[in-house]
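Work package 3, deliverable 3.1, input record:
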Amino acid sequence: MLAAECCGHYLDQFTFAERATDWRGNNNIAESIFAQMAAEPHPVPSWIVVGAGTGGTSATIGRYIRYRRLASRLCVVDVENSAFLLGWQSNDDTMVTGIGSRIEGIGRPRVEPSFVGDVVDRMIAVPDAASVAGMRHLSSRLNRRVGPSTGTNFVGALRVAAQMRDAGVRGSIVTLLCDGGERYANSYYSREWVSAQGWDVARHEQQLDRVLAGAAWSAG
Amino acid sequence: MSRYAGRSRAGRSRAGRSRAGRSRAGRQPIPARSLVALGVVLILLAIVVYAASQFLAGRQRHAYDAGASPLATYHLTAGRSYQLSTAGGVEELTKEHLLSSVTTPVCTQTAANGLDTAIKIDSTNDDVRDLHVFATFTATQSGAFHISCQRIADVFVDDADNSATDVSAALVLAATIIGLVGAIAALSGGYQLSAAAASRPKPVREAPAEHLD
């Protein structure tokens, strides 16, 4: 509408994101993941954990897994105010929240057309404060800054790992480092900015520390 | 609003409105599955009818029936107009130089008593290719006659008084109509089924989503 009013052009990155590259191969992200995992002790990951923005990444990975009949399962993490998890849970892709995501790059107020729920095995809702906690923790471990959506992925992956550990299941989990954190210096890496959002990040940081130390994942 | 709350977009459905169930007062619509079944049956019937038409075509004795031979005699009525035809029609005769703007076939009708009478050709312009007609004439006598033309092996009078009805052509027409009705029924029923499937509410997923606190 805005483009039409301003005689501009709307570059739609959402509608056909799920088919922008051939999900059957052609060096897409799914094929790349499995190629990189080939030399690992568990080359076929038990879980692949990703977030959803356009939905194209999860659609490509999920379709590729099924196309190749791999044992991997796809877990999509979602953030607050996003419609993906709500739509997936109720199997209703018309679901809307009307509120934008506060985690840069993932989460949308509507279920984007490129999000293919049928290829998603599981979804986890990650609180925004936990995403920031994950971002900080991972940045500290890697000694490089990562973006908040990477923090979301990390929290989801850790949750899955904790459950595998509790069940005595060994295997690999793949997730994505979506972007670097350099441009978030004045936002997600600013304690004042984070505090202004009303996020209790410390609580989630303590949770992550406990789980990584071997404790079970507990609520609160 | 809860941070995880949402709502379905009111009034917007990707399924579109189904045409199933639209009917006039007092008349029930044919169920979609029955329409598809009816369509399939009609299409199969059309195939059978067409096969029958081809079977009969091999036994009919018209100029356009492949391999047919003419009747020994044709019944004519004086004053009526008839058509002379042969396999290949005008095209074949023209190739054989038996028919042109200056050449007309020489044809004779032989009566039962052996008396030959020349047939006066009225016109050779009615080139109805599908019936292989090459000339028309007006009968000058009534009776049963053997028709022959010089240098033309088989001469037919397919519209003679004793010529058989073209049952094969009638069956082809019937097969076409039946097949068309069947195709429409099958496609209509199929469309209704697909629309119904699209509007059917999807089941809630078995694996519930997890909310980390």
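The first strand of chain B starts at residue 7 and ends at 8.
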